[in-house]
Sequence to fold (1835 residues):
Amino acid sequence: MKDYFHERPGSVPGTLIFDENTSPAQLALFDWDGMETQTFEDIEPEACTPYLESDSVSWIDVRGLGDGQFWQQMGKVFDLHPLLLEDLVNTPQRPKVEEYDDRLVIISRLVVPRDNKPGFDSQQIGFVLTANYLLTVRERLDLDLRDSFEPVRERLRANKLGRCSVDYLAYTLIDAAIDGFFPVLEQYGERLAHLEEEVVAEPTPHTLQKIYQLRRELLELRRAIWPQRSVVNLLSRTGNDPIVSTDVRLYLRHCYDHVLQVLEMVETYRELASGLMDVYLSAVSNKTNEVMKVLTVISTIFIPLTFLVGVYGMNFNPESSPWNMPELNWYWGYPVFWAVTLVIAMGSAIFFWRRGWFETTSGFEED
Amino acid sequence: MKDYFHERPGSVPGTLIFDENTSPAQLALFDWDGMETQTFEDIEPEACTPYLESDSVSWIDVRGLGDGQFWQQMGKVFDLHPLLLEDLVNTPQRPKVEEYDDRLVIISRLVVPRDNKPGFDSQQIGFVLTANYLLTVRERLDLDLRDSFEPVRERLRANKLGRCSVDYLAYTLIDAAIDGFFPVLEQYGERLAHLEEEVVAEPTPHTLQKIYQLRRELLELRRAIWPQRSVVNLLSRTGNDPIVSTDVRLYLRHCYDHVLQVLEMVETYRELASGLMDVYLSAVSNKTNEVMKVLTVISTIFIPLTFLVGVYGMNFNPESSPWNMPELNWYWGYPVFWAVTLVIAMGSAIFFWRRGWFETTSGFEED
Amino acid sequence: MKDYFHERPGSVPGTLIFDENTSPAQLALFDWDGMETQTFEDIEPEACTPYLESDSVSWIDVRGLGDGQFWQQMGKVFDLHPLLLEDLVNTPQRPKVEEYDDRLVIISRLVVPRDNKPGFDSQQIGFVLTANYLLTVRERLDLDLRDSFEPVRERLRANKLGRCSVDYLAYTLIDAAIDGFFPVLEQYGERLAHLEEEVVAEPTPHTLQKIYQLRRELLELRRAIWPQRSVVNLLSRTGNDPIVSTDVRLYLRHCYDHVLQVLEMVETYRELASGLMDVYLSAVSNKTNEVMKVLTVISTIFIPLTFLVGVYGMNFNPESSPWNMPELNWYWGYPVFWAVTLVIAMGSAIFFWRRGWFETTSGFEED
Amino acid sequence: MKDYFHERPGSVPGTLIFDENTSPAQLALFDWDGMETQTFEDIEPEACTPYLESDSVSWIDVRGLGDGQFWQQMGKVFDLHPLLLEDLVNTPQRPKVEEYDDRLVIISRLVVPRDNKPGFDSQQIGFVLTANYLLTVRERLDLDLRDSFEPVRERLRANKLGRCSVDYLAYTLIDAAIDGFFPVLEQYGERLAHLEEEVVAEPTPHTLQKIYQLRRELLELRRAIWPQRSVVNLLSRTGNDPIVSTDVRLYLRHCYDHVLQVLEMVETYRELASGLMDVYLSAVSNKTNEVMKVLTVISTIFIPLTFLVGVYGMNFNPESSPWNMPELNWYWGYPVFWAVTLVIAMGSAIFFWRRGWFETTSGFEED
Amino acid sequence: MKDYFHERPGSVPGTLIFDENTSPAQLALFDWDGMETQTFEDIEPEACTPYLESDSVSWIDVRGLGDGQFWQQMGKVFDLHPLLLEDLVNTPQRPKVEEYDDRLVIISRLVVPRDNKPGFDSQQIGFVLTANYLLTVRERLDLDLRDSFEPVRERLRANKLGRCSVDYLAYTLIDAAIDGFFPVLEQYGERLAHLEEEVVAEPTPHTLQKIYQLRRELLELRRAIWPQRSVVNLLSRTGNDPIVSTDVRLYLRHCYDHVLQVLEMVETYRELASGLMDVYLSAVSNKTNEVMKVLTVISTIFIPLTFLVGVYGMNFNPESSPWNMPELNWYWGYPVFWAVTLVIAMGSAIFFWRRGWFETTSGFEED
Fold:
């Protein structure tokens, strides 16, 4: 996910900017009169004109951002304000709701977990909602089959949408967008659980890097869901807006609860991840402590003994004086030396045993 | 406790989803006319119909989420909106209050400490409150005897409820649900006190793991109680709602104070747990420091002495020169060596004694 | 201070619960007609009846929570709602203000520093305020002479209260309760200053334990003062309440400033205590660093020398070859060895001196 | 960027203070009647008078703060309140919007990334907006060609502004100012990514210094953008202000979204930078741990062996007793010694191998 | 600065309490009729009476808190409410604005940097503002010449105040009080910059102590400025107060911006100081790491060599067996030993060189 969109400072407002590798735009039209659905795939914007004013529910679904020419046509057919066009095309914009005369514009985000690797893909979804039709614009063509709208398209084709009104269709799509956050959340819950085990079992610097990466992605996820809170809240509350009926607002209130659930989980995961950081740091300290203990035990046992053997390696001349190292000539000298050595070594070992230094403490025990 | 409920993104709103291991639903009906209580256990939804419109206080108590067929019947008998059904069955939902025409729907949570191990069990409880009857739906059958509703059922059977109105009955149950948080809190207070002692007495990495686990569970507890704050506040304040009488609102205000107390304690425990983390980290640092001191004392005493004995183990030929190690032939050579050795050892020991390195500082002293 | 009160979940609301070691209740009545004060100590509740309706200012002061029978009488004499009784007796409740018809109920807390040891004692104080009388209920009998109400009783006995109205009396007591926080604060200021010196002069793990304990008590203090903020704010602002006159509200606004001062100081102390934690941790790191330096200096000086003496302790046979350790037979061999030794030792020492390793850095210098 | 402006306490309000190295002021006038633009560069304030009352859109653009005499003229020509003058000249002021009778005064900030080194330059920009003309005052002359206003001047010269009204011109400039934050943000995103790699690849104390510097600059950036939030929000919302038309407010709402995006990114970067600090600290701990392991492995292998060779360097006299070091005379004595030595060394090595101490863990692996 | 004022709990409200070392009170009167200023220094309160009702602007300036008798006179002359007297005399009170009938009471604080040492002096300043006169009360006499009011007194004496109204005079003084925070801020900015260099160049535990002290003082500064925010905001906004004219409110809005600037800088400095703490801790870790490296390099090079020389110090009898240390009799034995020694030493050195252990990393490099 790009972090933000920005045009060249000072350029004309409403300038549409297209990335070099933008997908071409594909336009599909679903027209439903409550009985049956007509589907037109890959058509030109102009082909939509007859359906826009009809009483049936029309959903114009654009995937891929296409090029300037395409949007010039779109602007003409759907009568789109230049700023509105900018919101739809210059992605990513911040999620928001805006009223333009007789239409509502909603900018939201779709997320979908990556297929084979951690992380999620994210794209902007724009809604233009009038009394007669719903126009949706999604950024990317390649995520299409994995994203949350495909099931809705299928339900529409199968004539199973449930209620024949444009606002209900819009709700269904917004609900699908929000529900799309849950599988992503699930992935993070699993990664966090996995990291908890890793920190316990065998913490490496790589573990830390993974925790940092997790925190970074959760920040990104939070940035994607946070503004949606006020979007859905606004939609579910505004007074006498003629576009969204009271009935559909009831459904949107449910949607709002789901946004709150997602937000609460993201915050919970962030707190857990930051707690894991502390656990990791303490695991490293414990490992250093263990290494130190090994060194200290070995050194403390052998250093005094090394001194002792050094003593009897000295060359004081026993012939110069009866006081000079008479031990060297004792009958039991060498065995006594070994006895003393063993006593010292055992003593040190018992001393460390009593302090609990031989217990391995680097691993977490399971509850 | 599952973290959140989520259906497949894009699926039809109001779809009821049943876990494979959901308990079958058991329905009980208590009908009280102020004089005596009629109790019907394990009945079919249809059997409730005659009591729903009567003037007596009827409590329909459903335990276990059952299956789709059961809820189809329920929906018909109690005239439940599909979204309302979703709130009751697709658990866990976020605690909330919603008005549907002539009824209040309250989603709340019941918690109960685990029997033999740390932690708590948690289940969703849904209330549907009308002027004539109260319907409650609890998720799990197995927690029944331990949860906070059993005493209310007993009081009802014993005709000791106190006041004959549906809203007062609802209040009694909500109050019981909130009061159920206190035994759980008590458990955490005890675990925290236990951990404080453990960090002081013998901190192991296992201690840290316990602190992390405690923090994790407190986060979960917070997530369970936090939304109830606005639920109970809303119930105790809403203006002229005909379902909850002003009198019962007075009782709910008390309930609200208890929610605040629970919240404050959870926050306090979280702060204490995070302070304990710091204490633990510092305990580990102190232990490393102690290990270092042992190593340093031993090394500093013996390393110079080992050098000294090495000196007199050298083989400079005393015969080549009078300057070559004449000490080896001195009469008092060896005794003087021991005297020097003792002086050095004692000097080092006194040096370290003065710096306080022999004091054990790893344990906390009691106040 | 108990953290919270809780009855058995599901029990009848308004049930009064008495601890086994609750003090018996002592009731005193002060009746003041602006000219002189009549005092009755240790009387029965019924004896208050004649004074409740009189125009004089009557203060009924109950100390100790007593037993059920006592409160049954109280309830009858003062016409107390069951929930109100619960607030007074089932301590601790959260500080709050409630209106019951013609009376105000205020729950607040009294704190008093412990006599000979750190910490504070805390008890609940409940006010029932009507136009004609003031009823106060304090939890504990044993704190009586040390708490902040004794001076007010004395002023009343000495006829020096200042103004003859029930609301002014209530203000005087609330003000005394809030002012009672300052001596406790002062104690914490002193303990903090003492800990700052200790962390600087000789940090031990016991210091850390004291900081943790201080933070814990400050959390408790915060929990006691925080809800009083909205209590006093509410009292000083509510519009046309007939019980508290505009004039007394002016005094309560002063009281509110004091609550804010207490809160600000508690927060400041908490931040300082958490900063001290960091200073302590860094002191421990510094000490480890110092220990390491001692070890490193000693080892670095003597380990190469020990190698050197080892070299000349080798037994290569000088007779097999002129290349085999000819040094051993040199005339100046041994003196040269000592010269080399001294040069190496001095070199190392100068190296460490230059790096500043001989400076003691474990203690803080005073500004 | 200076942190704040302050005059000598107690001096006369409205005193204009000029830095010694303030740039001289350059005044340019753009007058546009919707058809063509007249441009006057480097003119005197008085020369503007005829254009101020005309119907055409006049933009008076002052660069450099100049001296007292210049502002005296400005004050007279444009009828500026002394406090307004202070806001324009005594920089930096806090970004804000103020209404003075028939004019709006907006204080904002322009930022621009530094050319060849990290960081950004920042200058104050003041707007005085009336129905007929727009006066802008920028602090510095030297940033002119790099800042975000140059493209607007070019568009104006090329007659491509788009809409002929003063408020639209003001919006264009405010929008350019806000958009100017994005290139700066981009620079911080890149520096952060670079630091993430550095912490992973080769963390040095210099890395830490860079992180600290980054956090410091992000704090400064936040201080520059934070007050603009309420500036733009205020401008885009105020009710029936005759100066800013409803139409232009729509554009300003877009601008507001951009401010929010900048703010969110700054906060995100700050959180990431503070997470990097933790990663750095843990990297240092890991390095210490590695050093310790090397020392411990070497010591643990060789210290016991050094004891062993010391044993056979002792001079116990084999002639005094058959028990005195008979090994020295064994036929296989020396080879057996080497065998034992190898066994001990291999044993230690295997022991450490098993514990994983030979694995290098100091570097982060890539995902 | 004392942290708070507190009387004995339970004492009579409005009791004035005087410290033993309170300065005597000095009263000065400035009376200005717009043309010229009459100045009376060191007069009695009664001498002010004739000027209080006159139309001219009278400023009664009291320095030093004096004694009870003085304030009794003041109370009589200025008709001061007992609570108002308490606010003025029992310092420090929390900054606030209160309305008493026809007068405004403002409690604020004056700060001034200490002369020769770090830190700031702080005193309470109370304003009593009526339509005809302004009474100001400052706590301390000794700060007089250094504080921000002296320049205002001088301007008044020189007849350069600018506008002849009591509210404008009050604004001038409040503005001077706020502007007085900037030189203090400047001092903290400098101390912080100095500490940043010190942490980089040579961090000692004394550095840490200085950072802690800085954080402590910034907390105190924040406590002094924070409540002023709402004081000045209240003054600049209140609707139709007859005492402060709309015109002067415009000036006070400027003042409010300055308060916000001070607050933002204090918060910024606090964040920077807390970031410095982390840098310091990491510097200590780095130093430990360096010490460890020295120890490890020395030990790793010499410990194996010491083993080697020990080997050839053994006394295995070459005569018992051809296998017993034949090396000792080799012709090139001793030179080969040195060759091996050099190879091992060089090998270790190269190994450590490659790992970068010889690079000094304890100092920060400059950008």
Summary: Strands of chain C lie at 26-32, 37-40, 57-63, 96-100, 103-113, 120-129, 133-138.
